[in-house]
Design brief:
With 156 residues, the protein is mostly beta strands. The chain has 2 helices and 10 strands; from the N terminus they run βββββββαβββα.
Length: 156
């Protein structure tokens, strides 16, 4: 299978999903990321969307502040921590708010196409990067709890 033989794990992130994540509420998520060596077959048949992302701040302690636009949805996200647990705060923005902040991300932007691939009880999100990150392909899967990673066939 393309994922099982995809390559090494990029990172393991454990964040709890039991808290609300929208409009400034702190959340945590459990997530596995994989660096893919090749695209899965028929990828273009799955739902996809373009994501534009720009970073306002990236610190050595793992803190990131980013802006994201996907379709008509605009958001500001703050992620804190590194390793297996990261806090995440996401705030919905209006288009005008996004456009006011976007110039501050000049030089720190990326564009990717995200595909949603059903896999058992999970959805694998496959990001195919464009521009200066062309050729980078990452798959990520979110889980409800840490034990679910160990129990899944996606556990490395």
């Amino acid at each position: 299978m393309w994922l099982a033989t995809a390559g090494r794990t990029v990172k393991n992130r454990v964040v709890a999903r039991h808290l609300q994540s929208r409009n400034g509420k702190v959340s945590r998520e459990i997530e596995r990321k994989f660096l893919l060596k090749r695209l899965p077959p028929n990828l273009r048949h799955f739902h996809s969307r373009t994501i534009e992302q720009g970073y306002l701040s990236v610190k050595t302690d793992g803190t990131q502040i980013r802006l994201r636009k996907s379709g008509r949805h605009h958001s500001l996200t703050i992620k804190r921590g590194r390793g297996v647990s990261r806090q995440e705060i996401e705030v919905d923005l209006t288009r005008d708010q996004f456009e006011e902040l976007w110039p501050a991300t000049a030089g720190c932007r990326l564009t990717k196409t995200r595909y949603d691939v059903p896999f058992g009880k999970h959805t694998i999100e496959i990001d195919v990067y464009r521009g200066r990150n062309e050729g980078l392909v990452v798959a990520e899967v979110e889980f409800r709890e840490t034990d679910a990673i160990r129990a899944s066939v996606l556990h490395a």
